[in-house]
Amino acid sequence: MTLGEELRAVVTGGASGLGLAVAHKIIMTGGKVTLLDVNEAQGAAAAATLGERAAFIATDVTDEAAVNGAVERAAERMGAIDVAVNCAGIGSPARFVGKQGAMPGAFFRKMIEINLVGTVLVSKAAAVAMQRNTPNAGGERGVIVMTASVAAFDGQIGQVAYAASKGGIVAMTLPMARDLASSGIRVMTIAPGIFSTPLLKGLPQEAQDSLAKQVPFPPRLGEPDEFAALVGQIIENPMLNGETIRLDGAIRMQPR
Fold it and tell me: What is the pTM (predicted TM-score) of this model?
């Protein structure tokens, strides 16, 4: 599968950060994108900025009926779906048991629902749409890209819920790829390290600089465009399937 005017993609969390960078990459190479995001104002503004080959559908990724409807609308608008990129997620910290007491079960459930279940719901809806595609010369019908985190491997203090949600994404990458292989649909996961996203930019500059110094090389925060570049490479390389790629500058997170 190649980037270009024939490519049609849905991107969750597409209103900002990594998702918006991916959408911009696809638009700049001539493709079409439908942004799925819970933030209506940001989503509409992002689609308007991207131009006429972009659209926005307000979507709560934890709502199965809403996800199925949004993906079908996206497929109708663009003619099909070739690529689905999952970037929607949250990352608030909470100690398992701390001075304020134990982590509420509702906090854990919400993290799993948005990060893990949301990724499952979007991916399966997209896979159903991709199965209708005519395979290319290599037998390929589509590509699904999921977003985990280095926290899946070396989660820090306060990241029990977040690490569990991202670890689940890593764990299901291979079986999902195996399940969808007969349909010609590839599945890949990216585990980014510390990236310059709106969430991180909300921290004081001193905190941002401290985080950047933890990255061995290059000693800086990752840029959303670098994440988007890897998504592009995954789309175009048919041998990338069933694996998680750490995109982290060789960082290994310390306990805190």
Answer: 0.96
